[in-house]
Design a protein that fits this description.
There is one protein chain. The chain is α/β, with parallel strands linked by helices and about 190 residues long. The chain has one domain. The chain has four helices and ten strands. The strands form four sheets. Strands 1-2-8-3 form a four-stranded parallel sheet, with helices on one face. Strands 4-5 form a two-stranded antiparallel ribbon. A two-stranded antiparallel sheet has the order 6-7. Strand 4 and strand 5 form a beta hairpin. Helix 3 packs across helix 4. The longest helix is centred in the middle third of the chain and has 23 residues.
C-alpha cells in the first residue's frame, strides 16, 4: 500500500491538482459492467451492436432515474460518487486566487451516472453543477456558462468564498427522460 504522506510523486500530483485548471476525460469503460463495452457484442454486425448498446444505456438510465438500481448499476454509481467526491475535495483545497475552483469533465458516455452521482452529493456538499444549459422548462446550451464563477458572501457581506463548480461536457449527447415515458437521445452541440 502506498503512503500518500511520504510518496513525493503523489504529493507533486496533489500540488499540481490544486494549482492548475483540471480537466477529466471519461470514456466508455468507466460505466462497465453496468453498460458493456462494444467488444461484448463483437459477434454482431455494427447496426445490431449499436442497437444493443443503446438499449443497455436506456435501461441503465431508466434504473438510475427510477431509483431502481440493480447491484451492478449501484456498484458503478458508487464508483462515480467516489470520483465526484474526490474531485470536490481537490477543488476545496485549491486557492481560488490562483485558479478558479472549477473542473471540466468531458465524457463520451450517453448514460446518466455522473448526473445521478451529482444529485446524491448535492444533498451533503456545497458546489455548483453546470451542464452548459440555461432555462427551466426548455434548456438552451450556452458555452458562456463554462466561464462563470459563483461565490458565497458572508453573513454581513464581510467575505467572499468561491463555490466549487463541476462543468460537464457531453459532446455526443445523453439519454434523457421524455414525457411519453420513453428515453431519447438528446444531442447537445457546443
Amino acid at each position: 500500500m502506498v503512503n500518500l504522506k511520504n510518496d513525493k510523486s503523489l504529493l507533486d500530483i496533489k500540488k499540481l491538482a490544486i494549482t492548475k485548471h483540471l480537466n477529466f476525460l471519461l470514456g466508455s469503460g468507466v460505466s462497465t459492467p453496468a453498460i458493456p463495452l462494444m467488444s461484448a457484442y463483437q459477434d454482431d454486425d455494427v447496426d445490431t451492436r449499436n442497437k444493443k448498446i443503446l438499449e443497455s444505456v436506456k435501461q441503465t438510465s431508466k434504473s438510475l432515474l427510477d431509483n431502481d438500481c440493480a447491484n451492478v448499476v449501484d456498484s458503478v454509481l458508487n464508483d462515480y460518487e467516489k470520483l465526484m467526491l474526490n474531485i470536490l475535495n481537490i477543488l476545496n483545497l485549491s486557492n481560488s486566487r490562483q485558479i478558479p475552483k472549477a473542473v471540466n469533465i468531458f465524457t463520451t458516455n450517453y448514460d446518466l451516472f455522473i448526473e445521478k452521482a451529482i444529485d446524491v452529493l448535492s444533498l451533503s456538499h456545497r458546489f455548483v453543477f453546470n451542464d452548459g444549459t440555461t432555462g427551466y422548462f426548455k434548456h438552451y446550451l450556452d458555452s458562456a456558462n463554462y466561464n462563470k464563477t459563483v461565490a458565497y458572501r458572508g453573513l454581513n457581506d464581510n467575505y467572499s468564498d468561491e463555490i466549487p463548480m463541476i462543468n460537464l461536457i457531453k459532446p455526443h449527447g445523453s439519454i434523457n427522460w421524455k414525457k411519453e415515458n420513453d428515453y431519447i437521445l438528446v444531442e447537445r452541440h457546443i
